[in-house]
Design brief:
This protein has 341 residues and is of the alpha/beta class. The protein is built from twelve helices and twelve strands.
């Protein structure tokens, strides 16, 4: 492992991985390849921009010619694929981009990787491919049962990765992360959205009764899990990376308001989204057997996250303009209006 291509490396989890890897492994060359859609942000990479083992290339994983050029030019031997459209709400509004990147893009990346003889390919996936889990915990052999366009497209990418292992004996690994949070997360997801809205004392649109259950994983723990699987995982295997810290969404919102010293009166219950999964829960015993251990509880991670957004308004205020405001209006305006009637 010498030249690692990190696709989607300017996004939230991808950039956290890049910041860790460039500094933890100075002998690895880390090449970020990112399409720079709305959630890609070069500010996420500022801490490592001048590191001698860091490079950046702009491109789309669904562009065969561009992928082939980068794999060849940098003599890539390892690929870690974070590149994805990742927001369920957006996938419900328009699924085209999700199929383009999360399924077709993964196929092209795998196919060109095979042709260029890369040594290891790690596909970063999500707990949402298991669908809603009413009781118990999903394990790696549990059926994939996605229930929205985002998770269905991610499951499609996983199945293609599995097919390349079975058909071509390509050294492929899959990680499935639970609900990840932390600094540098684009403010469309629950925690950064509500933290930044609460700072400005705006209403927080909570879907339904807020009793949906999510398993929360701090981003640094997610990154350390991917690092562990990349170095020690068995070819052809999937590994769950779970926070194993389940919370109702409404309790998470109340906790962040308490951290910010803001009133619960900011909470506004709005009509639920379509096909909203009630509960996600996974077991990560398999990853633990490789030596992975989580270091951050939800409460510690939440404190760090709230502190970061409060201290870094320069990062998120320039994001919450233009396209972001159009999306917010499209997603929440009618719901908020309906809730206030």
């Amino acid at each position: 492992m010498k030249n690692i291509l990190v696709t989607g490396g300017a996004g939230f989890i991808g950039s956290a991985f890049v910041r860790t890897m460039t500094q933890r492994y100075p002998n690895y060359n880390i090449i970020v390849y990112d399409k720079m859609t709305y959630a890609g942000n070069m500010d996420n990479l500022l801490p490592v921009h001048d590191e001698p083992n860091f490079r950046f290339e702009r491109g789309d994983i669904a562009s065969r010619a561009s992928v082939a050029r980068v794999l060849g030019e940098y003599q890539i031997d390892t690929v870690v694929n974070f590149a994805a459209e990742s927001h369920v709400d957006r996938s419900i509004l328009d699924a085209d981009a999700f199929m383009h990147t999360n399924s077709i893009g993964v196929y092209i990346l795998l196919d060109e990787g095979r042709k260029h003889g890369i040594g290891r390919f790690l596909q970063v996936s999500t707990d949402e491919v298991y669908g809603s889990v009413p009781v118990g915990f999903s394990v790696e052999g549990s059926p994939l049962a996605p229930r929205n366009p985002y998770s269905a497209a991610k499951a499609g990418g996983e199945l293609m990765a599995r097919a390349y292992f079975e058909t071509y004996r390509m050294d492929v690994l899959i990680t499935r992360g639970s609900n990840t949070f932390g600094p540098y997360q684009y403010p469309e997801k629950l925690l950064p959205l509500f933290i930044t809205e609460a700072i400005d004392e705006r209403k927080l649109p909570v879907y339904g009764d807020g009793r949906q259950i999510r398993d929360w994983l701090y981003v640094e723990d997610h990154v350390s899990g991917i690092d562990t699987v990349l170095h020690h995982g068995a070819s052809g295997e999937a590994y769950n990376l779970a926070g194993e810290d389940l919370r109702h969404n409404i309790d998470v919102v109340r906790a962040l308001l308490e951290r910010l010293g803001k009133p619960e009166a900011l909470i506004q219950h709005v009509p639920d989204r379509e096909g909203h999964d009630l509960r996600y829960a996974m077991s990560s015993e398999k990853a633990a057997a490789l030596g992975w251990q989580r270091r951050f509880t939800f409460d510690v991670g939440l404190a760090e996250t709230v502190r970061w957004y409060a201290a870094n308004e320069w990062w998120w205020r320039k994001i919450k303009t233009g396209e972001y405001l159009e999306y917010y209006k499209r997603q929440y305006a009618a719901r908020l209006a309906a809730a206030e009637e």
